[in-house]
Amino acid sequence: MKTSRWIAALYIGPAVLVMAAACLYPVLSAFQLAGYDWSMGTPWASAQWVGWDNVIQAFANPRVWNSLLTTLLFAAVCVTAEMLLGIALALALEKPVKGMSFFRTLFILPMMIAPIAVGLTWRYIFDAQFGLANAVLKLLGLSAQTWLADPQLAFMAIVIADIWQWTPFVFIMMIAALAGVDHSVIEAARIDGASWWQQTLWVKLPMVMHVIAITLMMRLIDAFRVLEVIYVLTFGGPGDSTEILALHIYKTAFVGQQLGVAAAISILLLLVVTVLSLGALRLSNPMKGEPQ
């Protein structure tokens, strides 16, 4: 038994070490960079040690906290909608009915499109003069909107784009989880007189709660690091109404050439995502508070 464990460790060990190095090196580099004043295009030898100055500058900037609040709101709205829609679609399409494979494939397609293409697509859809969104409003007898020039509508636009692209991910995860549910348990609940809603709420969903928790964690992480779609769609505007923290880090690093400050903000983002991810994992075992 011990020999087989050593053999397994021998095979798995190199891959684990490579993955650990790939994950830890960028994080440690960010902590290091946060203590230096350095601009791109200059040698690292010219970087000056500034200690906590970058952290203090980042935390004292009200725009950072505004971007963090925007990110929290964006993540809360998008992830909530995606989880609800993804689970609902999976429950609706879990039964093997004729033609369902086509609809399942159709739902997956948005997730396969490159983020830049998604941003461009929705930018054209929300165009004030020629966009499809205003064309639909006119057909309904409503007035056209300047979607990307109004702060609230622009925020709605990036939310819609994210929900459209990533609801299929939740759908795939839930379809796979529901396929592994023991149908004898469902049948027993049906025989006991449980309705479809009762079977779903008290039997099916609790049995796949660990998958829901992992899916929620993955979507939270992705929602906090989304960049390309918002970069193309609004570039954080109008003003800074759609500037999430990842985009603010990008602007600080590559537009403002303040790499040290950007690294300090990225550490803040890492801490927030870590706390929220651990909270999401608690859903998989709420009684013990530990992920299964």
UniProtKB/TrEMBL annotation:
Species of the source: Limnohabitans planktonicus II-D5
Membrane spanning stretches: 7-28, 72-93, 105-125, 153-181, 201-221, 259-281
Membrane disposition: Multi-pass membrane protein
Compartments (UniProt record): Cell membrane
Chain ranges of the ABC transmembrane type-1 domain: 68-280
PROSITE patterns assigned to the protein according to its UniProt record, in alphabetical order: ABC_TM1, PROKAR_LIPOPROTEIN
CDD domains: TM_PBP2 (cd06261)
Main localization of the protein described in the UniProt heading: membrane
Family matches, as Pfam families: BPD_transp_1
A GO-annotated cellular component: plasma membrane
Keywords: Cell membrane, Membrane, Transmembrane, Transmembrane helix, Transport
Keyword Membrane in annotation: yes
Signal peptide bounds: none
Swiss-Prot/TrEMBL GO biological process terms: transmembrane transport
UniProt record similarity statement: Belongs to the binding-protein-dependent transport system permease family.
Protein name from the UniProt record: ABC transporter permease
Record has Transmembrane as a keyword: yes
